[in-house]
Design goal:
8 helices; single chain; 4-stranded mixed β-sheet; 4 strands; alpha+beta; 2 domains; Peroxidase, domain 1
């Protein structure tokens, strides 16, 4: 909890600087790249959080990976946080920055779980539903494939969830059938 509060402070500062310097899109792309590296490589995340590895060694690793591939502002924040021994916050900052970017740009983030990949028509219908629910015009839709749903979909928009899956309907039927009004309990 305390880490997310500290991360959000760095995110606010970085967002303001990126807007001021006209590098908001580039820094957002860099933060998404950083978050994807952290998600796909658990050893990288462990290295950032390791108290055994010296901070100057971590900075050398980060520079070897990201130098020349990311915006100067992004590299400056990575370098500054590493020098201040705050590099374990970098994954949280990367995720929080993208969320703050979406709020700043008025983009609604949503995720849909289905049993198969959506085609263009179905994706457009889901996006229209998200636009109707959220009232926003720009949508960032993340798709997850979950074969356990059997069919249908589960849509998450902000703090709302629409569960139109066959799995949930079967579960509701099971609950309804377990309540038998004709048998009295003694």
């Amino acid at each position: 909890m305390a880490d997310s509060r500290v991360a959000s402070r760095y995110v606010k500062s970085l967002l303001g600087l990126a807007e001021e310097q006209g590098a908001l899109e580039a820094v957002n792309a860099d933060m998404q790249l950083f978050a994807s590296v952290c998600t796909s490589n658990k050893d990288f995340t462990r290295m950032l959080k390791s108290p055994v590895i010296r901070h100057d060694k971590k900075l050398a690793i980060l520079e070897a990976i990201f130098q020349g591939k990311v915006n100067k502002l992004t590299m400056a924040i990575i370098s500054m946080l590493t020098r201040k021994n705050r590099e374990p916050l970098l994954p949280a900052i990367a995720v929080e920055f993208h969320n703050a970017y979406n709020v700043n740009k008025g983009i609604q983030k949503a995720s849909v779980s289905t049993t198969f990949a959506l085609d263009a028509k179905m994706k457009a219908e889901i996006e229209a539903l998200v636009k109707k629910i959220s009232g926003k015009t720009d949508i960032e839709l993340q798709q997850k494939i979950n074969p356990d749903l059997i069919g249908g979909f589960v849509l998450h928009v902000g703090d709302k969830q629409i569960d139109a899956s066959i799995k949930s309907k079967l579960k509701a039927l099971k609950t309804k059938f377990s309540e038998n009004p004709y048998i009295k309990d003694f």
